[in-house]
């Protein structure tokens, strides 16, 4: 594949650019460089620290750098909220990555799921078996897992048709002008930083509903929200709230770190989940309380 370097990557090291382009690890990018498989403006480049320049063309081979098939790891901890023959609902702790990927080859939720529910290995995509939706590493809360191919197809269809409900609690900076609203703005990869998402006219449709449950004014002004996803884009709530000037408290990737209130991760929790059972058609509804670390933050506010 051949890519032209945009302004966002001007001055970046070539190994980092390759990793971003291919979605691989830095180690894999260096291996490609060492093998002589990378060309810049037609010439082989092996120096990993070389800086890219705007307009240069970088050529990499068409290689499969997808993560290996995950293996079971019984040491991964998570709480099962519900399990039957078709679906599993879990409470994902903050700090746990959902599935293997670049930089996270193991010790993910999927590795833990395979240890408890090995039958999901043949459900869905091999690198992310059973996974029909995701939560960011720093987000805690409810996640539904498909246990059979039938359940997988059905749940994916419900999510695509916006028939499943996913509700979140979020703590955002500032006071909102209205008690509720909708952020309707497409989301795509950031032109300035390819590791981030951003509101972009070239992005995919994205809609987030929010309701202000309470506004705190001491020692800082922050608002406690209930948010509902109508779509499921990467970092959607985080990007949308930042775009309207109310980033999530503790979200250092999207301008959510400010003086006066310290949080070790984004203050975001997947609190409610509702979907139709893929086998029985019954409505399945779940709700989780806030985890202790987020409650501790609220206890400092008035």
UniProtKB/TrEMBL annotation:
One GO BP? enzyme-directed rRNA pseudouridine synthesis
Report the InterPro entries cross-referenced here.
Answer: PsdUridine_synth_cat_dom_sf, PsdUridine_synth_RluA-like_CS, PsdUridine_synth_RluC/D, PsdUridine_synth_RsuA/RluA, RluA_PseudoU_synthase, S4_RNA-bd, S4_RNA-bd_sf
Q: Where is this region: Disordered?
A: 185-204
Give the matching SUPFAM superfamilies.
Answer: Alpha-L RNA-binding motif (SSF55174), Pseudouridine synthase (SSF55120)
In this chain the RNA-binding S4 domain maps to: 12-73
Q: Does the keyword Magnesium apply?
A: no
Q: Name one GO molecular function term.
A: RNA binding
**Which key words tag this protein in UniProt?**
Isomerase
Q: Does the keyword Isomerase apply?
A: yes
Question: What Pfam families does the record tag this protein with?
Answer: PseudoU_synth_2, S4
Identify its protein family: Belongs to the pseudouridine synthase RluA family.
Write the protein's name.
Unannotated protein
Organism encoding this protein:
freshwater metagenome
């Amino acid at each position: 594949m051949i890519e032209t370097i945009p302004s966002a990557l001007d001055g970046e090291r070539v190994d980092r650019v390759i990793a971003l382009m291919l979605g691989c690890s830095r180690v894999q990018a260096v291996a490609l460089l060492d093998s002589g498989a990378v060309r810049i403006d037609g010439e082989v480049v092996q120096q990993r620290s070389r800086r890219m320049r705007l307009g240069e063309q970088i050529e990499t081979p068409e290689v499969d750098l997808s993560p290996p098939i995950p293996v079971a790891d019984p040491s991964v901890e998570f709480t099962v909220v519900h399990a039957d023959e078709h679906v599993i609902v879990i409470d994902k702790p903050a700090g746990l990555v959902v599935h293997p990927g670049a930089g996270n080859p193991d010790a993910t939720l999927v590795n833990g799921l395979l240890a408890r529910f090995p039958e999901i290995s043949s459900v869905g995509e091999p690198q992310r078996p059973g996974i029909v939706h995701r939560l960011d590493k720093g987000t805690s809360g409810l996640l539904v897992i498909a246990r059979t191919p039938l359940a997988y197809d059905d749940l994916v269809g419900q999510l695509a048709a916006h028939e499943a409900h996913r509700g979140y609690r979020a703590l955002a900076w500032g006071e909102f002008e209205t008690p509720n609203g909708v952020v309707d703005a497409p989301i795509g990869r950031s032109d300035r930083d390819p590791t981030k998402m951003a509101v972009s006219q070239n992005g995919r449709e994205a809609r987030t509903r929010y309701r202000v449950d309470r506004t705190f004014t001491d020692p800082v002004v922050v608002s406690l929200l209930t948010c509902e996803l109508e779509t499921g884009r990467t970092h959607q709530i985080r990007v949308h709230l930042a775009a309207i000037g109310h980033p999530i408290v503790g979200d250092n990737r999207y301008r959510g770190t400010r003086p006066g209130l310290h949080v070790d991760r984004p203050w975001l929790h997947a609190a409610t989940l509702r979907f139709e059972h893929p086998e029985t058609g019954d409505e399945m509804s779940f709700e989780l309380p806030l985890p202790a670390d987020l409650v501790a933050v609220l206890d400092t506010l008035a």
